[in-house]
Amino acid sequence: MTEMTAYQKKMRAESWQRATWACFWLVMLTFAINTTANAPPDMALGPVVTAGMTFWLLQTLPLWLFFPAMKRHHTRALSWFGYILLLYLPFCIVGAFDPPHWSGVLTSLSVLALFFSNAFWVRALKRARAAS
């Protein structure tokens, strides 16, 4: 088995970084879909959007706090980001059992994808830094 070069490790870290960013935006989108999908059908659109955006912001605020760390590639903060994502998982799984089921399942899968891509990004980032 051959050892990866520093360049290959850097490229692997960059690919996991792109996957993590894609999953991050997917989680934000699925939380927005989840808040609007659970709106009462007889409610006007204006209050649904206002209340939904407020709830979405409160729901995603802990994730937004890690946004600067993601941009600066701080491995320690990214590790904590993974722990915070694990706190979101039970909430998402419970949401999968509430109607509409598809939005809860989609949110659960997106949070899981973000958790795993973040974990692999941290691992690849640490290896790339150790190689250079």
UniProtKB/TrEMBL annotation:
UniProt-listed Pfam families:
DUF2069
Q: Where are the transmembrane segments?
A: 21-39, 45-66, 78-97, 103-122
Q: What are the entry keywords? A: Membrane, Transmembrane, Transmembrane helix
Q: Which domain of life does the protein's organism represent?
A: Bacteria
Keyword Metal-binding tagged: no
Q: Which InterPro entries match?
A: DUF2069_membrane
Name used for this protein in its record: DUF2069 domain-containing protein
